[in-house]
Amino acid sequence: MAIRVLLVDDQPLLRTGFRMILEAEQDIAVVGEAGDGLQALDQVRALQPDVVLMDIRMPRMDGVEATRQITGPGRDGPAKVLVLTTFDLDEYVVEALRAGASGFLLKDAPANELVQAIRVVAAGEALLAPSITRRLLDKYAVHLPSGDEPVPDTLHTLTEREVEVLKLVARGLSNAEIAADLFVSETTVKTHVGHVLTKLGLRDRVQAAVYAYESGLVRPGSQ
């Protein structure tokens, strides 16, 4: 079945461009458009898309709040949110990731990257390499806790090895790189990552990276 996509951006020309790119793919169907966050919520309820391509800065309701309502508790469907940001990385993207977005994409990304991003997010994976998310978190470290706060109780539910894996995810390592670092198989790493996400109630690796920073497990700029 085709991946159902909702385009959310307050610039009609951008929506038209995205539609042309995505509708050229046999496995992707653009089911609707919205010009702001409020329209996006209505369209998500009516159209049940698999992926919402979400702009950040919009009138009436911005992309952060719309993302929070789409992916938060009591959401109406399984839609995943892919955030659009500018080349300089919008300061609100960290908040969007916290709100439940599965990743972010630069607005000037090549067409093939847009298409691949839609497929990755639809498959339930975090968008792009965790290292990109880490650079974003480092850039906006001022918005994150200082690390002096008490360690969240949920972190104590992880085993020692799971904590190791979480740290490496936040540092931007792929499953293969983590496997090499810990001298285990890639399948074992996938199992550990799955356990981390389940125990911490997280959706994907992006939220795991955010959690690692927010909990103080990983500090901005640390190696």
From TrEMBL:
Molecular-function GO terms, alphabetical: DNA binding
Signal peptide (residue range): none
Entry-annotated residues carrying 4-aspartylphosphate: 55
UniProt keywords, alphabetically: DNA-binding, Phosphoprotein, Transcription, Transcription regulation
Transmembrane found in the keyword field: no
SMART domains to which the protein is assigned, alphabetical: HTH_LUXR, REC
SUPFAM superfamilies for this protein: C-terminal effector domain of the bipartite response regulators, CheY-like
Classification via Gene3D superfamilies: 3.40.50.2300
Domain of life of the source: Bacteria
Record has Cytoplasm as a keyword: no
Domain HTH luxR-type span(s) in chain numbering: 151-216
GO biological process assignments: phosphorelay signal transduction system; regulation of DNA-templated transcription
Cross-referenced InterPro entries: CheY-like_superfamily (IPR011006), NreC/VraR/RcsB-like_REC (IPR058245), Sig_transdc_resp-reg_C-effctor (IPR016032), Sig_transdc_resp-reg_receiver (IPR001789), Tscrpt_reg_LuxR_C (IPR000792), WalR-like (IPR039420)
Residue ranges annotated for the Response regulatory domain, each copy included: 4-122
Pfam families per UniProt: GerE, Response_reg
Identification of the protein by name: DNA-binding response regulator
Protein species of origin: Streptomyces colonosanans
Organismal lineage: Bacteria, Bacillati, Actinomycetota, Actinomycetes, Kitasatosporales
